[in-house]
Amino acid sequence: MSTHEVFNQPPPLEGYDSLEQDRALVDGITRHGADWAMSRIRDVGVLATGEAMLWGTQANRYSPELRTHDRYGHRIDEVEFHPAWHRLMQASVGHGLHALPWQDPRPGAHVARAAMIYLMSQAEQGHQCPITMTFAAVPALRAQPELADEWVPRLTSSEYDPRCIPASQKKGALSGMAMTEKQGGSDVRANTTRARPLGNASGPGAEYAIVGHKWFCSAPMCDVFLVLAHTERGLSCFLLPRWRPDGTRNAFHIQRLKDKLGDRSNASSEVEFHGAWARMVGEEGRGVKTIIEMVSHTRLDCVTGSAAVMRQAVAQATHHAAHRSAFGKRLLEQPLMQNVLADLAIEQEAATMLFLRLARAYDDSPADAEQRAFARIATAIGKYWVCKRTPPVIAEALECHGGSGFVEESILPRLFRQSPLNSIWEGSGNVMCLDVLRAMAREPEGVVALRNELSLARGTDRHFDAYLERLDRDLSDLTDVESRGRILVERLALALQGSLLLRHGHPAVLAAFIRSRIQGDHGTAFGTLPSGIDRVAILDRARPKV
């Protein structure tokens, strides 16, 4: 006998055009001059709500496994992935998520790529780690032209080849990174890994033997890695491939894979170098300066990826509320739920506008010194704030589902586990704040560029103008500034988001942001927007129509 029928359950949120359903994204792509790539971006968006969703589930259910030796006892140091991982990688590489600005460096290329990263990360974010590092390795390698000539064509190829064979036998290659060690973490100057010249030559481009360890080596199945190690002249940057030039395996030994909270589809590892062959990149003793180009570009993707996870959570929560009824009416019609969802939507839209603006600054940086300075300081600000806001957004979106959001069949638990990652990777919250403070002290042109950006909205709202005046006072009084670093960076981030919304935002989203974030008419939890906010308009803009 039948015990019940299934009703009052939302349909699956899948198979829709996630670009077209995201008005903040579409508007930003056009505003920042990337509409030439709209068709390409849309293809990624459709993929991300279709097959890639299944691949993401499978890649996280079946985690990578380490094989240190083959059946005969030979050291191989290989990681095996579920086929779904390779499908995700092939799709992202094939669409140019790892290299679009280097493949097609026309205006708006960074914006177009960021939009695709944002869409694909909503399906599965773990595989974006090697995608991001491959993208970010290119500007760092350009510090050593002969190495760039050898590797950049491979790193920008649209062919994904997962085989662990010498890169010279493949058209495409991927790059990883190995910087931190057990005793130092973010303090890379505490590293103990050493580099010894091979032969008489030393310095940029020369060959070295690397001996030491790395506590976190991201994506250890990549073909090449940027590594920090000490020489007699200080911490230097090296290019370390999986295979030596003679075709033999390099002395790159994977000790174990990390058993992580989230990002479970991706392999992160501890490695040791037993005289591994490498070549120096950039000036000897200036390794941090060399690798900072890579770090800066990965931080851009941290902001973008966090905005993506927010977007997927908001889409899931608003979709659920639009189809689920309780106490006599749909959740989306109930004022308290409207307040929560609208608050989340405001946070997500402000994050989207910020990462698109940052990407445009990277587009403009080669020819515009002010935009280059702006990108340097604003990326650190954005990474701190957007990544820091992501976990509470996901937690609240999960709660909107009730118990059904707490089970693995929904995507919410995976999003929640993933949500703290970008706040930790490439510099935790305190590191980002210290980076902003250092930039303010050492690069005053960055502060000028930031103030010029904020001033574009001056005079459009009296509350925002008052907020900028208080911010100016904060910037002019740097007494005990390190202990106040977080509140200062938070205010800078809100000012940036407010400036963007005042110039380009939807009226209802703008009004709510100013009331709640700038005027401070807001509680400490999401769902505490003041009365008079047009919640219906905000939710109509945020909810996928499927």
Automatic annotation (TrEMBL):
Adaptive response protein AidB N-terminal domain sequence ranges: 8-162
Signal peptide start-end: none
Named cofactor requirement(s): FAD
Domain Acyl-CoA oxidase/dehydrogenase middle: 176-274
GO molecular function, one term: 3-methylbutanoyl-CoA dehydrogenase activity
Entry superkingdom: Bacteria
UniProt xrefs under PROSITE patterns: ACYL_COA_DH_1
Assigned EC number: 1.3.8.4
Chain ranges of the Acyl-CoA dehydrogenase/oxidase C-terminal domain: 285-440
Keywords carried by this UniProt record: FAD, Flavoprotein, Oxidoreductase
PANTHER family: ACYL-COA DEHYDROGENASE, ACYL-COA DEHYDROGENASE AIDB-RELATED
Protein family according to the UniProt entry: Belongs to the acyl-CoA dehydrogenase family.
Protein name (record): Isovaleryl-CoA dehydrogenase
Organism the protein comes from: Pendulispora brunnea
